Amino acid sequence: MLKKKVLIIENDQDIRNIVEFILEEQGFETMSTPEPEDLSEITTFKPDVILLDEFINSRPGHRLCLKIKRIESLRHIPVIILSTANNIELIATECEANDYISKPFDIEHMLGKVVKLIDHQPLAY
């Protein structure tokens, strides 16, 4: 059986490294970046879930989330927004993210959300 894939788009290298390590320990295949160069990284890696920091280098993460959700071939990929913002729930709703996690976060909580979204994905034909 193929490993489930998680793309981690996180500005903070320490958080990126920790999340990547934990997910790989749990059997996920990961790819991490502070910011994707373009959407081809997403289409090439074909993640089952994207963990997306709201504060990436050159643009707000919610704009990237909206872009993903507007592209037919990508919109099925669940996106979890990560943020320290007080209004993270509103941000996630407005950008059509599937879920959100407030920073700082508990690793078990993050894992539970990732697994839940992967388990509830429709089958791709």
Structure description:
By secondary structure, the protein is of the alpha/beta class. It has one domain (5-119): Rossmann fold (3-Layer(aba) Sandwich). 39% of the residues lie in helices and 19% in strands. It is built from five helices and five strands. It has a five-stranded parallel β-sheet, with helices on both faces. Strand 1, helix 1 and strand 2 (29-33) form a beta-alpha-beta unit. The two termini are 17 Å apart. The mean pLDDT is 91. It comes from Mucilaginibacter pankratovii. Pfam families: Response_reg (PF00072).
Number of beta-strand segments = 5
Poorly predicted regions are none
What is the percentage of strand-forming residues? 15-25%
Total count of domains: 1
Query: What's the pLDDT, averaged over the residues?
Result: 91
What is the CATH architecture annotation? 3-Layer(aba) Sandwich
Going across the major beta sheet, what is the strand order? 2-1-3-4-5
Radius of gyration, Cα only, in angstroms? 13 Å
- How many helices does DSSP assign? 5
CATH class: Alpha Beta
**Helix-strand category:** alpha/beta
- Name the CATH homologous superfamily: Response regulator
Q: What is the CATH third-level topology name?
A: Rossmann fold
Instruction: Give the proportion of residues in helices.
Output: 25-40%
In N-to-C order, the SSE pattern is EHEHEHEHEH
Distance from N terminus to C terminus (CA atoms, Å) equals: 17 Å
Q: What best-fitting shape do the alpha-carbon axes yield?
A: globular
Which sheet architecture does the biggest sheet show? 5 strands, parallel
